[in-house]
Structures are given as structure tokens and as C-alpha cells.
Amino acid sequence: MRSPGVHLREITDDNRDAVRALRVRRDQKQFVASVSKSLKEAAKTPEANPWYRAVYRGDEPVGFVMLSWKPPAGPYKGRHFLWRLLVDKRYQKRGIGREALTQIADLVRADGATELLTSYEPGDGEPWPFYQKFGFEPTGEIDDGEIVLRLTFPTP
């Protein structure tokens, strides 16, 4: 089920405040950092090569995504790592996260990648079921207490 009108948009001075105002549910806060924290983290770690976008549905910002896009060094050197995926609590369970992730996977695949990595912190309400449904599988690695997942792209 595709959620119509979902697209990624650059974060600019015009939409930054609206995007930073997006919030997850209280029970999800332990798993997902806020947009403000994510943007600060991106600014503090340029070596991670952060790439981020607002997720829009029509003209409304409904989410946020951030990747470490082929960083030149570190544990994910030369790979694509989904660092943040957040859908505002008012817009969850509508296929928006799945549609945003589909678009990200397409972008990463178009960049020549064979996989997309992410990780999550295990716990009650964890995002593992969402990622599992999408096709991610555990790599067997643990990074800073988080379980690392891989989405493998079929080779053409």
C-alpha cells in the first residue's frame, strides 16, 4: 500500500522549524532521537557524511530521515547507513515510513549500493517488526548496544 504524495524534501530555513516540531509517541522516544538532536548530531559529525531530508505528504512535513552516506572512514566506511527515520505521531500507521524507506532504498540502490544498513535498540515497542516487514535482516553485529540490520538489494 503506497501512501500517496509522500516525498523527500531538503530542509531549508523555510521549513526547518516545522520539521523540528515533529514528534514521535512518548513510548518511542527511547528509540528515536528528535529532529533537533539529529540535526545537531549531523553538524557535530561531518565525518559521518550525514545526508538528511524532511519527509512530506503533500505540502505537510510529516517525518524526518537521516543517513550516513558512504562515510570516508569508521565502521560504515563506504556504506549507506540509515541513521534516523522518524514519522510524527499524528501520521503513523499510514504507510508513510514504509514509503519514505522505499524511496531511500531506491536512492541508495541508484548510488550503486548492494545494501542499506540500520540499527535499533532492542526493547518494548522497538522498531524491529517494521524493519523486518520491509525485508531487513540482522547482520549478527551489535554496534554500541544496537542490533545492526541489513537490507540486501537484488543484483540486476
Give your account of this protein's structure.
This protein is 24% helix and 32% strand. It has four helices and seven strands; from the N terminus they run βααβββαβαββ. The chain has helices at 16-20, 35-44, 96-110, 128-134; strands at 6-9, 50-57, 60-69, 80-87, 115-120, 137-143, 146-152. It is globular and about 35 Å long. GO terms for molecular function: diamine N-acetyltransferase activity.
Task: Show unreliable segments.
Answer: none
Highest CATH level, the class: Alpha Beta
Mean model confidence by pLDDT: 92
Q: Report the portion of residues in β strands.
A: 25-35%
Q: Let me know the largest β-sheet.
A: 7 strands, mixed
- SS elements, strand count: 7
Structural class: alpha+beta
Oligomeric state of the chains? Answer: single chain
CA-CA gap between termini: 24 Å
Q: Tally the helices.
A: 4
The CATH architecture can be named as 3-Layer(aba) Sandwich
Computed over alpha carbons, the radius of gyration is 15 Å
Helix content: 10-25%
CATH names the topology as: Aminopeptidase
Order of the strands making up the biggest sheet: 1-2-3-4-5-7-6
User: What is the domain tally?
Assistant: 1
CATH superfamily: Gcn5-related N-acetyltransferase (GNAT)
Protein name: Spermine/spermidine acetyltransferase
Domain N-acetyltransferase: 6-154
GO molecular function: diamine N-acetyltransferase activity
Keywords: Acyltransferase, Transferase
